[in-house]
Amino acid sequence: MSTEVSQTVLQMLEKNVGKNIRIILERNFGFEGILATISQEPPGLWLSNAEAVIMRTTLANPLPQVISREDKSELFINLNFVQRIEILH
Questions:
Q1: Cis bond before residue 42 (omega within 30° of 0)
Q2: Which residues of 30-43 are buried (b: 16+ CB within 10 A; e: fewer)?
Q3: DSSP helix/strand/coil, 82
């Protein structure tokens, strides 16, 4: 089953090229890096200076906190598999 990414989402992401972002693929796993470019076909994001991150939550702190990082360099992520995108400040 293929989901289509709307043009509005792609336009919003294009405004954040060059910014540091976190892409959540699963509850406890994602990637961080600099948004380098947007691809429309297939719909996806290219990250530079990317790192794989593992996150955890606790009862005392329900917001996910990064507990582990691993360098990945350049990376393409298909938007059809993304749960959430966060712009980091």
A1: yes
A2: bbbbebbebeeeeb
A3: coil
What pTM does this model have?
A: 0.81
Contact 62, 55 (CB under 8 A): no
4: pLDDT strictly greater than 70: no
Q: 19-65, pLDDT tens digit by residue?
A: 999 999 998 999 999 999 998 888 899 999 999 999 998 888 888 88
Sheet holding 84-87, edge to edge: 65-78, 43-56, 29-40, 20-26, 84-87
Q: Check: CB of residue 80 under 8 Å from CB of residue 6.
A: no
